Amino acid sequence: MYYLRAIWEGFIKSIKEGTTVSKNLFPMIISIIVIVKILQELNIIQYVAMPLEPIMQTMGLPAEFGIVWACAMLVNIYSALALIPSMLLFVPSVSVEQMTILGLIILIAHSLILETKIAGRCGLSMSFQVILRLATAWICGVVVHIFCSNFGYWQEPAQILFKAGTAPDLMGWVLNELKNLVRIYIIICLVMMFNKIINALKISQFVGFILGPLLRILGISKEATNIVIVGLVLGILYGSGIIIQASTEGKISRTDAFTTMSLMSIAHALIEDTILLSLLGGSLWGLLGVRLVFAIGVGVIINLLYAKKHHQLELKKRIA
Q: What is the pTM of this model?
């Protein structure tokens, strides 16, 4: 009886939290949907997307997907999900490869304004974090595209939850968009519930057990390793909060703060965000595995370069 009551209370709390989050998100999402609809009616979306075409082509993606990515970078992942139906009217046939790449670049580079401000509060360079995430996302997209094109992976048509559906009139369009907003609301509530399950099952401890030794090999201290695990599982907001506190108390060095924040900026909320982007029809394991591999690879490079630079500065100080 106790467990049933706890489950029910968790369910109700998730709906309340999901409703609160939706109230904050939906005004912004609706305004973006309306703007895109106006551009669509004026038949100028292709011209808006044109400047993004060269970059998107290098990753095997249509130019219109650049608008989706730009929206994710400036706003958040949910706004990108809301735009997909409108963009699919211009690119009705997409492969699993394309949706996996789109999902990866969104996962690596999204909410840049908010999340780089968080990095700034940790005492790190905001411009560096933006460049790091954009460059990593683009390189990741190019590499996956080349690999899939040469070896024939993920070439089957993508199964997308958010369908385009050509509306015969304005009322039909409104109804279609309302259905998609309801889907997004349900997803947000499920995400809230999923986070509670993660905490209850102590999944972060399990991930820490697996990744801990690898992170320490990268040169990240034991204290910083625990912070990275929190960021990887729960999100950059939780991880950065711990970094700020640990830095203030002197528990981690500036080197640890820099390397952990850089690693978390590329790979955070691995479970929650990966499931969200898999709704676009990409490969779930591709979104999770490729992102994690790239994050660790970038972490190795950053750690080596930063550690080398820090070591040289220390030598100069001693000589002086």
A: 0.83
Spatial contact of 92 and 164, defined as CB atoms under 8 Å apart: yes
Q: What are the structure tokens assigned to 293, written together? A: 């591999």
Q: So what's the pLDDT on residue 168?
A: 56
Query: What are the tokens at 84?
Result: 């997909």
What tokens were used for 282? 């990409």
Q: Count CB atoms within 10 A of the CB of residue 5.
A: 9
Beta bridge partners of 194: none
The C-alpha atoms of residue 129 and residue 136 are separated, in whole angstroms, by 10
The C-alpha atoms of residue 275 and residue 194 are separated, in whole angstroms, by 10
Rounded Cα gap, residues 320 and 221, in angstroms: 29
Tokens of 118: 């968080």
Q: What is the pLDDT at residue 315?
A: 47
Q: In what helix (H) or strand (E) does residue 115 lie, and over which residues does it extend?
A: helix 112-121
The one-letter amino acid at 315: L
φ and ψ at residue 157, rounded to 5 degrees: -60, 140
Q: Cα separation of 136 and 108, whole Å?
A: 7
Check if the beta carbon of residue 280 is closer than 8 Å to that of residue 101.
no
